[in-house]
Amino acid sequence: MKSIQSNIKKAKKYLDNKHCIGVPTETVYGLAGNAYSDISVKKIFNLKRRPVNNPLIVHYFNLNKLKEDCHINSNFIKLYKKFCPGPITFILKLKKNSKISKIVTNKKNSLAVRFPKHSLFRNLLKNLDYPLAAPSANISNRLSAVKASDVIEEFGSRIKYVLDGGRCQIGVESTIINLLNKPTLLRFGGLDISEINKVLKKKILIKTNSKNKIAPGQSPLHYSPGIPLRMNAKKPKKKEAFVLIKKRGVNYNNYYYLSKKNDLKQSAKNLYSLLRKIKKDGYKMVAVEKIQNKGIGRTINDRLNKASKY
Ligand code: TXA
Ligand code: MG
After folding, report:
1. Do 151 and 80 share a structural domain?
2. % residues pLDDT > 70 (the chain)
3. Is the peptide bond before 85 cis (omega within 30 degrees of 0)?
4. Is residue 249 located within the same domain as residue 109?
5. Is 91 a pocket residue for ligand 1 (Cβ < 6 Å)?
6. Total tally of structural domains belonging to the chain
7. How confident is the model at residue 249 (pLDDT cuts 50, 70, 90)?
8. Are residues 24 and 118 located together in one domain of the fold?
9. Does the beta carbon of 138 lie inside 6 Å of ligand 1?
10. Phi/psi at 304 (nearest 5 deg)?
11. Is 223 a domain residue?
12. Mean residue pLDDT across the chain
């Protein structure tokens, strides 16, 4: 308990001094900085090598703090009540007098907001008088980080501190919903859209591959392990690592398992670390067997599909 509080204090000190740090969330680790500070936010873009036109998600402790910066609407309230804190990001309209750095949104008048569930992150947010801008803690287009050591692998000594919250429970990024007009899904994620449909009592629009991209995270070339990836493979080619969703009787060196028994949630949790491991083990190519396209399986397939464009 004592060490938790001292780690939170340390994290706060770095953030107050306008540094960026790694933070744990229930989805993936974030690279966090003060969302009200131009200096902090610029550092995030530089560290990630992220194009300035790709806006950041801002993380809040609760609704009261959010209301200072954004206009909310009835769909938001319904979803907030049911799923927050949790793995869902909302696109809302920014208030004219919001204190959010213009660099976060690339001067746009909408903002992506999220209420993360990880207890350490919540504890940290509660202790700050500003919200945290935090994109996933990886170099642009690479695999997201799901452990503190992954964050260090990405940024090394270029960041001052990582608040270690253990392994991320969900393992893939949040689901993004645009609430500016008709509720629209912009990115598959940790929360299943069928859950969202139930709450809104209708099937929301899906625009994850829209040509007219609002979320550059929709673009191909994302989530790449840095080696070519092939989906829906029946068997591996020579020298290819093979990713399977359930244990097989045979166990070759190049076989990697996402779960014991075809478990989609377990597979999502293991996805990025398994791909990182395959790269580290020296493979130059990876094949993945067919994954059921339902529930969080849709998110897994979305990420694999983007990774396969490498
Ligand atoms: O689970 C998550 O969402 C993680 C954790 C750290 O919270 N964060 C994350 O951030 O995945 P990032 O920056 O890697 O992805 C955010 C996505 C990007 O694709 C960005 O283009 C989109 O959100 N986005 C941000 N602001 C937006 C806006 N105003 N309108 C539309 N899309 C936006
Ligand atoms: Mg990302």
Report:
1. yes
2. 95
3. yes
4. no
5. yes
6. 2
7. confident
8. yes
9. no
10. -65, -40
11. no
12. 95
User: Which residues constitute the domain of residue 248?
Assistant: 229-307
Question: Which ligand does the CA of 139 lie closest to?
Answer: 2
Domain end marker among 174, 206, 238? 206
With tokens 């859209």, the residue in question is 193
4-48: per-residue pLDDT in tens? 999 999 999 999 999 999 999 999 999 999 999 999 999 999 999
The pLDDT tens digits of the residues spanning 95-130 come to 999 999 999 999 899 999 999 999 999 999 999 999
Question: Is residue 55 in contact with ligand 1, taking CB distance under 6 Å?
Answer: yes
- For residue 137, what is the domain's CATH number? 3.90.870.10
The answer, as to whether pTM is greater than 0.90, is yes
Span 186-243, pLDDT tens digits: 999 999 999 999 999 999 999 997 655 555 555 556 788 999 999 999 999 999 999 9
Q: Are residue 105 and residue 142 in the same domain, yes or no?
A: yes
* Distance from the alpha carbon of residue 76 to the mean position of ligand 1, in angstroms: 17
273 phi and psi, to 5 degrees? -70, -35
User: What is the C-alpha to C-alpha distance for residues 72 and 77, in angstroms, rounded to an integer?
Assistant: 7
Tokens linked to 81: 């009540």
The answer to whether position 280 is within a domain reads yes
- Give the ligand 1 atom nearest the CA of 29: 6
pLDDT at 240: 97
Q: Is 236 within the bounds of a domain?
A: yes
111 lines ligand 1 (CB under 6 A): yes
Q: Are residues 34 and 178 in the same domain?
A: yes
- The CA 217 to ligand 1 mean position distance, Å, reads 7
